[in-house]
Amino acid sequence: MSSLGLYVHLPFCPYICPYCDFAKWPMRRSAASRYLEALYAEIDAQPAEPAKTIFFGGGTPNAYSADEIAALLARLRATYDVHGSVSETTIEINPELVAPGDFERYVAAGITRVSIGVQSFDPAEIKTLGRKHTPEQIRAAVEGARAAGIASISLDLIFAVPGQTLASWERSLRAAIDLGVDHISTYGLTIEEGTPYERWYEREPSSFFDDASEADLYDRAIAILEEAGFEHYEISNFAKPGHRSEHNANYWRNGEYAGLGVGAASYRGGERSVHTRELNAYVDAALERKPIPAQSERLAANKAWGEGIMLALRTAQGVGLSEFKERYGVDLEEYYARVITRYVDAGLLEIDGGRMRLTRRGKFLANDVCGAFVTFE
Ligand code: SF4
Fold first, then answer.
1. Number of domains in the chain
2. What's the whole-number average pLDDT of the chain?
3. 60 CB less than 6 Å from ligand 1?
4. Pocket test for ligand 1, best of 12, 28, 60, 155 (most atoms within 8 A of CB)
5. Looking at the domain assignment, is residue 293 inside a domain?
6. Model pTM?
7. Taking the CB of residue 239, how many other CB atoms lie within 10 A of it?
8. In this predicted structure, what is the pLDDT of residue 299?
9. How many CA atoms lie within 13 A of 374 on its CB side?
10. Structural domain boundaries, residue 329
11. 279 within domain boundaries
12. Does residue 313's CB lie within 6 angstroms of at least one atom of ligand 1?
C-alpha cells in the first residue's frame, strides 16, 4: 500500500506577511494563471502512481478560485489517486478569502481537510502579524467548512508575537477550542533572515520574547489543549481523536513524498531534492517541458538515521528501538550511546517500553536534542 505524500505548492498571496520566508509572491492574475499552466505541465510529465495524501500548501492556495482548485485536484487525482489510494486531501486557506460555496466545491472535488491560517484571534496581534482577517471571518470559515461536510478542520496559531501576553494567548487558544475544530497547530514565531521582522528584531530586540517567556506560552498551550481533549501528538500539533494529519505523519515517519511546484521538496529512494525557488525559472522550465532546476542530495546512511530520529522524536510515540533496527539495521542505543546518555542524564530524553522519547522538558529544547542526533558522527 502506498504511503506517498504529494505536496503541491501554490505560492500566491493576497499580501505578504512581514515574518514569512516561504516561497511566495503577491497575487497577480496573469502570473497565477501562467503558474497553473506550468503546474499542469509538470503533473502531465509524471508517471501515474498511487499517493496516500495530497496537500495544497502555500502561499495561500485559496488565492485561486475553488473552481481552479477543483480542476487542479481532478488532474492530480487522475495521476495519483490510483484505485482510490488517496485518503486525505488538505488545503491551506486564509479565512478572509473564503467565498460563498467554496467549501461545497472543495468537498465535491474530494478535499477532506482544511487548514486555516488564523495565527491569532486578537485584532492587535493579527495586525502586528500583517494579516488582514477578522475574528468574525475565522468563525465564518470554520462554520462554513463544517456545514459543507469538510471532515477535518485545523487552525494554525502563532505564539511569541510581539505584544502578546499569556492572557491574550490563552484567549486565542480558547477561541479556537470553542469553535470546535478538530486539530490545532501552534508555532513559536521565528525570526527569518531577510524578512522585515528580522530588521525589526535588529532595531528593537526587546519587543520580542526571550526563550523562557516563549516556553511559558508553549507550556500553557499544551496544558489548555490537552485539558480540552486534544492529543499532543507532535511538538507543534494537537488533534482530537481520529484527526491527526496523515500527510504530516508521513513526514515524521521519514516516509517518501513528492513535491510539485516552485520551491517544493521531494524525498524519494533516499534522495532529497528541492525545486528552484525562482518563480520564472520554475515556470519556464515546466512550460518548456524541461527538467525543473533543483538541488538534490543523497543522504549518507548515518545522516538518514539521524534525520529519521529527529523526525520521530518530534512525535508523541518517539522512536521505536526495534523498528529502527529493522529499518536501518542499526542498534540505536549502541550507536548513539554518547548522545543518549547526555540527554537522558539532563532529563530531556527517556527510554521506556522499547521507545525513545523527549520528556516534557525535552520538548522545549527539541532543536538541541534532535540536532545532536543529526550531527552525530
Ligand atoms: S504567511 Fe502565509 S499568507 Fe503570509 S505571506 Fe507567508 S505564505 Fe503568504
1. 2
2. 96
3. yes
4. 60
5. no
6. 0.95
7. 22
8. 86
9. 13
10. 318-374
11. no
12. no
